UniProtKB/TrEMBL annotation:
Entry keyword Membrane: no
Protein name listed in UniProt: Phosphoribosylformylglycinamidine synthase I
InterPro entries: Class_I_gatase-like, PRibForGlyAmidine_synth_PurQ
PANTHER family referenced in this protein's UniProt entry, alphabetically: PHOSPHORIBOSYLFORMYLGLYCINAMIDINE SYNTHASE
Any Pfam family hit: GATase_5
GO cellular component terms attached to this protein's record: cytoplasm
Biological process annotations from GO: 'de novo' IMP biosynthetic process
Domain of life: Bacteria
Keyword ATP-binding: yes
Gene of this entry: purQ
Length: 266
């Protein structure tokens, strides 16, 4: 079958588009980076893609809140195309700033496919600081993005990643099983002597989906963990593999997420 086509959005401070494109291509897709202004000029560009990725960065310098201005630009100029895209059998991922954009755009969690209304938020870290480190995640639902994954370790890099929702919304997220991943203390956090939750996220939530499972928003960066040598403790792991006479893996844990998306269309 033909390789799925991926659109990776760019512009106005998104800055992880190259890594995201590379990860998708390494996983067997055809990926293109498209500036938001080019989409506004020619919205029909959307029609050729099966996967949309909104990468990390600092769109508009996080002015007026992380992801807010970029989400407004998408909603004001491309909402009809975006809504049509997500209502079809398509996949969408928002990573870090991309997650913030999807939340502000109202694509997550979008109960009962009510797209367009913001229902949750990603607030300043409880440390009031920009945080860069690795985290361990426990996968909580059956989104195709996380197929065959039970736990995973990935890096984070954000200042506004603290997931927040009202008690009513949180209850609905749990009832409908839309929490995709939670921060837990496993191999990486233990190795680095770090707490599980890096930002004070409500209920330890690191990622959520819509009810279809096809739209995923996550704070950690899988595109920064696609090779074995991306792991913070890879020298230790290397010695363990060699002493046990095992071959060294080439790829890191994050690549599986992109492979899952590609496999969805094959």
């Amino acid at each position: 079958m033909a390789k799925p086509n991926v659109i990776v959005l760019s512009g106005y401070g998104l800055n992880c588009e190259e890594e995201t494109k590379f990860a998708f291509e390494l996983s067997g897709s055809k990926a293109e980076i498209i500036h938001i202004n080019d989409l506004i000029q020619k919205p029909s560009i959307f029609d050729k893609y099966q996967i949309m990725a909104v990468p990390g960065g600092f769109a508009y310098g996080d002015d007026t809140g992380s992801g807010n201005a970029y989400a407004n630009k998408l909603k004001n100029h491309l909402w009809e195309k975006i809504e049509n895209f997500v209502r079809k059998d398509r996949l969408v991922i928002g990573i870090c700033n991309g997650f913030q954009i999807l939340v502000n755009l109202g694509l997550l969690p979008a109960f009962d496919k009510n797209y367009g209304n913001r229902q949750v938020a990603l607030l300043h870290n409880n440390s009031a600081r920009y945080t860069v480190r690795w985290v361990d995640l426990k996968i909580e639902n059956n989104t195709p993005w996380f197929a065959h994954i039970k736990t995973i370790s990935l890096p984070i890099a954000h200042g506004e990643g603290r997931f927040f929702a009202t008690s009513e919304i949180l209850s609905k997220l749990k009832k409908k099983k839309l929490v995709a991943a939670r921060y837990v203390k496993r191999e990486i956090c233990t190795y680095q002597s770090l707490p599980a939750n890096p930002n004070g996220a409500l209920d330890g939530i690191a990622a959520i989906t819509d009810e279809s499972g096809r739209i995923l928003g996550m704070m950690p960066h899988p595109e920064r963990a696609i090779f074995f040598t991306h792991l913070p403790h890879w020298p230790l792991l290397k010695e363990q593999y060699l002493r046990n006479k095992k071959s060294l893996p080439k790829f890191g844990p994050g690549l599986q997420i992109f492979k899952n998306a590609v496999s969805y269309f094959l």
